[in-house]
Amino acid sequence: MAEHTVKAFDEDITRLRGLIAEMGGLAELSIQESLEAMIKGDEDLADGVVVRDKKIDALESEVDKLAVRIIALRAPMADDLREVIAALKIAGVVERIGDYSKNIAKRVGKIEARKHFEPLTLLPAMGDIAAEMVHDVLTAYAARDPVLALEVIATDDKVDAFYNSIFRNVVSYMMENPATISSAAQILFVARNLERIGDHATNVAEMVHFAATGNYPPDDR
Amino acid sequence: MVTVVHPNLEKTDAKMSAREVSVYYGDKKAIDEVSIDIPTKYVTAFIGPSGCGKSTFLRTLNRMNDTIPSARVEGSITLDGEDVYRSKMDVVQLRARVGMVFQKPNPFPKSIYDNIAYGPKIHGLASGKTELDEVVEKSLRRAGLWNEVKDRLEDSGTALSGGQQQRLCIARAIAVDPEVILMDEPCSALDPIATAKIEELIDELNGSYAIVIVTHSMQQAARVSQRTAFFHLGKMVEYGRTSDIFTNPLEERTKDYITGRYG
């Protein structure tokens, strides 16, 4: 995009985009690390995810303040306005994604007899897709790429399918191994969190599409 | 080049219509084939960088450019279907129907009362003192100035503050019961409070008159108008609902201008 006549306006927008990118990067890392911690039973790694969530929250409030300041001082119009509004909303959604990872991390210590606990092996593939959605939607945001945003939206079906399949698997496992029900229930929550992360990545993708084109993606998906 | 008209724009009754209007100052083409309908019930804003022709185009609507010897107008402009530029058009009558408010308030060096009464008197719109008093009060009330000046109607119009003078000029335009009011940067010489009062007044008048406003303040165009036309280098680049122009302009040049990326 061409530069603003007032350079400080460009600097504000660049800073806003940088904050979102930083938040997104941390959120993506937290998804991966919370799952790794869950699968390996690594509680230190899990603690790191919980601590990182505070940083994500702090970045969100920084985005809020900067966005309000830009609106007050620069009176953004057209795509600038959409950019700022989208940044505000995206920051809120990415913060939620961080919360879901934190929630996964907090469940790490609640899995018993981890070594022989099969349902854990169902998670990595779903986690990879959810993390990839977040990664791709941030790339789409950075590139203002509505086409990539649509691809992210289409990927959400896969995450939903994974969730349904894990749900069925875990329920069968529970019936066959009633002694592990409380651990297995944790896995259902983890899968549920990943499914929600996919939904939120989809929301971000819609915002990216809106900021780039002025329109929300068509509904027929 | 054709103007980009937003596809979602509803058809509305047109008070004035311009078709392929070009304006020349000597050899220089200042306006290049502009076509637009001025809706009866909306405020239309013309925006664009200095020298883009928006004021020139505004002035063609009530033939103010006639006063410039080198100016020449091509194409057609109609008011309720009547050709504004036909040779038998009474220009004084036209300017009563299509009133104008200028950048700097220009009250007559007369009393507040006479500033308003002058037009109705020469156009024969009021007979006798009582009727004239009524027109003066009604016009000042509509312009939101009555309460501030009712006890000093004999004071000179030029003794008022800038914002009051501008509202006096709007009252003066209203007094002759116009159909269209053209405003050329009506707030550029006013402070923010006086500006807000004028903008409130424009809102009040909206619906009763077709209003066209030229403004350098995009925020003002966004606040007061329902239709916006963007001018650039003598051409009308884009025309649409104000809310669409300011959130999702279709043309790159419009976008660059309203987001502050212009040149």
Automatic annotation (TrEMBL), chain A:
Keywords: Cytoplasm, Phosphate transport, Transport
Superkingdom classification of source: Bacteria
Keyword Glycoprotein part of the UniProt annotation: no
SUPFAM superfamilies xref list: PhoU-like
GO biological process, one term: intracellular phosphate ion homeostasis
GO CC terms of this entry: cytoplasm
Stored InterPro entries: PhoU, PhoU-like_sf, PhoU_dom
Location of the PhoU domain: 20-108, 125-208
Protein location: Cytoplasm
Transmembrane segments: none
Function in brief: Plays a role in the regulation of phosphate uptake.
Family indicated by similarity: Belongs to the PhoU family.
Subunit note: Homodimer.
Name of the protein in its database record: Phosphate-specific transport system accessory protein PhoU
